[in-house]
Amino acid sequence: MDKVLRVKDFLADLGRIDLQIRVVAGEDALGKDIRVGDINRPGLTLAGFYDFFAYDRIQIFGLGETAYMRQLTEDQRRETYGKFFSYEIKCCIFTHDEEPDPLFIEFANDKKVPVLVTRRDTTRFSTMLTLLLDQVLSPSVTLHGTLIDVYGVGVLLLGKSGVGKSECALELIERGHRLVADDMVEVKKIDESLLIGTGSPVLTHHMEIRGIGIINVREIFGIRSVRNRKRVELVVTLEEWDNSKEYDRLGLEDTMYTILDIDISSVVVPVRPGRNIPIIVETASLNQRLKRVDIHSARELDENIQDLLKSEQRHQ
Amino acid sequence: MTERMIVVNSDAGVHARPAMMLVREAMKYPCSVSLVKGSVEADCKSIMSVLGLAIVSGSKLVVRAHGEKEREVVDALVTMIENDFRMT
Prior knowledge:
The complex is a heterodimer. Chain A is an alpha/beta fold. Chain A contains nine helices and 19 strands. Chain A is elongated, with a radius of gyration of 27 Å. The N and C termini of chain A lie far apart (66 Å). The longest helix of chain B is centred in the C-terminal third of the chain and has 13 residues, at 70-82. Chains A and B meet through strand 14 of A and strand 3 and helix 2 of B.
């Protein structure tokens, strides 16, 4: 499903992101869709260079743009704005509390382009807006699993209901690791290689443990046992031990689990009574960290053995 | 796969107890069962997932099941929601 943000959403309560923004023109067009998560500074465009003009992005007018517009004569302005608004502009935002001149507002109202003014400075505002656009417009998927930070590696535990994901997470929390979300994990694709997982705002670090019911992990284990978001780096799938299935015994090949077209390292851990799953998850995380610094235990052992075998052969 | 759309009319929405009723019912069946609200699909055999959907009165849901006895479970859950979670 295509994600959409409307211009009027900028004016709504955005929680921690306070854009300090107000509308000065184009009120009728506040329902306009924003689908492109990038922003554009139109300085070059106003000066007459229209190649590569990203008109479908949000246009941010900083001090440079407003100063340039101010020194233009009335005729020059009319010409500049005429050309600028001949494109299908989505939305213009002026920073530093600088209101555009009446002619600009006239053009904007005429072309039904929302114009907003923020009290914030350009850099800070752009950062906030980019963050907001990323949060809303990035593709996302909600997975049934548990996300936990184990030794700094974001581990997504997957598996059928009742296989023991929550119990495994509980033991990991007890061992000092940090819960991001249980049962419902929203995973967002921030860029081509980065997946960030968060919990549902409704559930906020609560967990269901069969036999006890719903518990509040933050209250029971304290603030150090939870975090709000974490990069997803390893997928651990828990499944009931299946005698007919061949489990990986070497770990020479990296298996991958694909989420939103991004491949994440993955291991499948068979569960059976008496197996200590949390320690296996901890070890998988540490192994993942070694792979990050290019230490691949299985491959290295295999290479050593192959070298040894070669030298033995030479001595014979 | 069997699925049916339904609008929740229960005034209080799906809070803890109704969520538990849905999960208990779903657990009786071997197939996978999910509730879909908007773009989010939640495992109907997990209390937290069902609660996480934040289903309120007026929410449109799709009850979806896949596997053995899929039709029966969808019927049972839809009936439960239609009866506003009153035990019949």
